[in-house]
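Notes from the 1:1 (GR / supervisor)

We went over the backlog. Supervisor wanted to see one worked example end to end before approving the batch request, so GR pasted a single chain during the call. The sequence is below; no edits were made to it. Supervisor asked that the structure be written out right there so they could see what the output format looks like.
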Amino acid sequence: MKTIMVDMDDVLTYGNFSEILENYLGYIPDYDNIKHYYIQDILGEKKNDFFNKFKDMNMYDNATLLPNCYDVLKELSKYYKIYICTDYIWQEIIAYAGNNLKNKYDFLFQQLDFISPKNFIFAADKSIINCDIKIDDKISNIEGAKIKLLFTAWHNKEVAKEELDKQNIIRVNNWEDIKKILLENKEKKERCKG
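Structure output shown during the call:
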């Protein structure tokens, strides 16, 4: 059975980090013009103060899965072995990483009841994960896979199609795109057998 690695943040769920950041700032940043991968870099000198307040928060308290994510993942689980791989370390508050790990684990355990917790991988360096298919919003995290799906996020939307084509990366904008790529042929074969 082929394997799939799926990222968590900005792929399965948006969490509430942006909302927490907006409440701290008192305004909504212009996300279209942010060029950093880590959105907290816009805080500049306020970063330490922000993370001192953020360290005890659970950004998954009111988080939800992205539209169609649950149904598509459940269907994928009939044909593929699925691993959820997510980073849990905030460099700014590394001593509190355990809090974030627990919050992420609890969210995944509650939301994805058909995936064994043994298939939850918490790792900052995803290059060690060897899966046939990788779905992530960060290009470096999908290297090494036979099928590389880059989930569109604010920080990667300007990467040109030509650049993605050079690296054999397929851009996906939502879980319906993933379904078309990974399930349509499988479902057709199943119907032909029946």
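Supervisor's comment: Residues 97-111 form the longest helix (15 residues).
Batch request approved.
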